[in-house]
From TrEMBL:
Domain of life: Bacteria
Stretches with biased composition (Polar residues): 1-10
Protein name as annotated: Terminase small subunit
Annotated region described as Disordered, given as residue ranges: 1-26, 151-185
């Protein structure tokens, strides 16, 4: 049975899957373009990783790292794009942790019923767009994720039980009563 060489698929940028795979060659030098910082910034805003950028530009990851070192404008464009995307996700996550009320536009059908001069019933229908307030409850998983990452000492599922191991004697107070080992006469 013949096996096919299958390139890894890129789920974020599916068009990158059709590009030829970059091969590092000591003889062939990849030419850096002045428009690369702009392209890299836009791709990073969409969530591109260094691997995605390397695939897009048709270079290996090492070349991309060298471009970041040799071209400060390229490095800055990548960093700014990644930070902006991260901030958008963080803001969205934060909003998901809160109860909130949003206004949405909704189409409603209005029916008007009246009687004409002859006493005949007339119905007219029209569609109106109205703003409706909708309550969005806080997402428990988002809250849990936020708290565990924001303050892991307080909100972690795993607790450090070092204090419990140091105190090995346990004293129970069962209240006053008779000692079963004493005999009563």
């Amino acid at each position: 049975m013949a096996t096919r060489n299958k390139q890894p698929t890129n789920k974020i940028f599916p068009k990158l899957n059709t590009m030829p795979e970059a091969k590092a060659s000591p003889r062939k030098k990849t030419i850096y373009g002045e428009h690369f910082p702009s392209q890299a910034h836009k791709l990073c805003l969409l969530g591109a990783t260094d691997k995605d950028l390397a695939t897009f530009f048709g270079v290996c990851k090492r070349t991309l790292t060298n471009w970041k070192k040799q071209h400060p404008e390229f490095n800055l464009a990548v960093q700014n794009g990644q930070k902006a995307a991260d901030m958008e996700v963080a803001a969205s996550l934060y909003q998901a942790t809160l109860d909130r009320v949003i206004s949405i536009k909704q189409a409603i059908k209005c029916k008007e019923v009246y009687y004409d001069q002859n006493g005949k019933r007339v119905e007219k229908e029209r569609v109106e767009i109205v703003e409706v307030e909708k309550h969005i409850p806080a997402d428990f998983r988002s809250q849990q994720f936020w708290l565990k990452n924001r303050n892991p000492q307080q909100w972690s599922d795993k607790h450090d039980d070092d204090d419990a191991e140091n105190d090995k004697s346990i004293t129970l107070n069962l209240g006053s009563g008779l000692n079963p080992h004493e005999t009563t006469d």
